[in-house]
């Protein structure tokens, strides 16, 4: 029998969900005061959780399967933070202040991962977590699309000064809104598939899926797809489409008995949401931006006729000597902005505070000693997500596993050309997504569902 939740546990649940919605609002939490707020909030919630656990207000008996399964991942995440602490204490960092901030923020991510595994251990609670992320993504998408279509061009509290004409939500950079929407869209698609039933296929059932009680979820997906296209983020859209096709292909192949139903659901997402709706919201502009990208100057008869309009690949090249200097120990977490200016050539005239490639930046800042545990953490999360996707006997598990796999793969693809994992709101959401991957494979059913929504979930 499941024990009733204590007041403290319910308060922790509510506070954590509110925090996840808050994270993107202050410009992606990419400022010193917002980072301080994250550290303070998660530190406080973690301390309250520990006290409640010691007092027996959060019973973990027969509930802690997700927490046990996620302990190796938590250990890897902590191991990376221990190395950052060594960088800071031993004077290995080229920017001690930034490294100390990265250490505190990294520890906050560890607390977030721990709290999600501990508190969202049932499917009903996992649905609440997924629904909150979907709500947050829809809110960001609606705000970004509204500001662009109305030509108001505001962030949350002030006018935009960059990326005018592109949807950015409450983020400064369109690519970071795209990265956030990749994850929340994946959560939405995963929940939609998790809540499908096992009835024999009929066109009436398909219409019910498209227009019935799940229509609100589909409407949220449509709004997020529209905003994703309106960001005009090349790699953001590419990562979303490629991850959807890759995971969707595996999903359809695995589910032999429900292959037609699953194919139609995924086809409706691709054809209706992406190809039809987004056609009216900037798909043509996105296509033109992709086609008109030049990585190198175009020279005809010794004369430059088109200058390169994309120099991120040059930044990658100039960053490599930083890694070669200290391949094991790194330059210090958060120190890229301090050390990069000594290396770029004359063709890099702009100021770069990030490498625009998460893999390169983590390698440069953390070194192999700090970056490898982070890579192992991510791969273990993907393994849990794919394990849940592989469970053909449970539609709920493989649906949520689908969403977690898709979201993680999308971020991994996008990280090749951007720095979403350096933006606190997106990094924290990615940690939450990795925790969802563990929960998808381990969250337990409620024995006595009390409402039709829970009944539909636990039937799987």
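Q: What amino acid sequence fits the structure above?
A:
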């Amino acid at each position: 029998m499941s024990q009733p939740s204590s007041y403290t546990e319910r308060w922790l649940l509510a506070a954590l969900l509110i925090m996840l919605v808050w994270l993107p609002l202050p410009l992606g939490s990419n400022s010193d005061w917002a980072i301080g707020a994250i550290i303070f909030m998660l530190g406080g919630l973690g301390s309250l959780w520990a006290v409640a656990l010691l007092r027996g207000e959060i019973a973990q008996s027969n509930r802690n399967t997700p927490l046990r399964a996620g302990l190796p991942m938590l250990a890897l995440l902590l191991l990376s933070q221990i190395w950052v602490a060594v960088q800071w204490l031993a004077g290995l960092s080229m920017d001690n202040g930034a490294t100390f901030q990265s250490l505190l923020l990294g520890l906050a991510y560890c607390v977030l991962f721990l709290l999600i595994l501990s508190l969202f251990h049932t499917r009903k609670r996992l649905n609440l977590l997924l629904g909150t992320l979907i709500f947050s993504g829809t809110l960001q998408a609606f705000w970004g699309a509204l500001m662009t279509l109305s030509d108001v061009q505001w962030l949350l509290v002030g006018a935009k000064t960059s990326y005018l004409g592109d949807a950015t939500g409450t983020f400064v950079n369109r690519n970071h809104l795209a990265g956030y929407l990749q994850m929340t869209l994946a959560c939405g698609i995963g929940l939609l598939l998790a809540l499908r039933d096992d009835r024999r296929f009929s066109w009436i059932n398909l219409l019910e899926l498209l227009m019935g009680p799940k229509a609100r979820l589909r409407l949220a997906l449509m709004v997020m797809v529209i905003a994703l296209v309106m960001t005009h983020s090349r790699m953001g859209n590419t990562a979303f489409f490629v991850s959807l096709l890759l995971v969707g292909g595996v999903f359809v192949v695995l589910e032999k008995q429900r292959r037609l139903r699953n194919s139609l659901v995924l086809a409706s997402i691709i054809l209706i949401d992406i190809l039809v709706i987004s056609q009216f919201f900037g798909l043509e502009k996105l296509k033109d931006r992709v086609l008109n990208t030049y990585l190198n100057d175009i020279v005809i008869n010794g004369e430059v006729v088109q200058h390169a309009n994309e120099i991120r690949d040059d930044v990658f090249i100039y960053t490599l000597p930083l890694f070669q200097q200290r391949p094991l120990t790194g330059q210090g977490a958060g120190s890229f902005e301090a050390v990069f200016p000594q290396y770029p050539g004359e063709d890099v005239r702009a100021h770069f505070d990030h490498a625009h490639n998460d893999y390169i930046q983590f390698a440069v800042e953390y070194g192999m000693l700090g970056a490898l545990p982070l890579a192992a953490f991510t791969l273990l999360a993907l393994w849990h997500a794919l394990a849940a996707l592989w469970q053909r006997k449970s539609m709920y598990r493989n649906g949520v596993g689908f969403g977690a796999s898709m979201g993680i793969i999308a971020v991994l693809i996008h990280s090749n050309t951007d720095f979403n994992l350096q933006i606190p709101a997106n990094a924290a959401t990615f940690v939450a997504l990795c925790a969802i991957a563990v929960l998808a494979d381990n969250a337990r059913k409620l024995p006595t569902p009390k409402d039709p929504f829970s009944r539909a979930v636990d039937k799987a």
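Q: And what stands out in the fold?
A: The chain has a mean pLDDT of 84.
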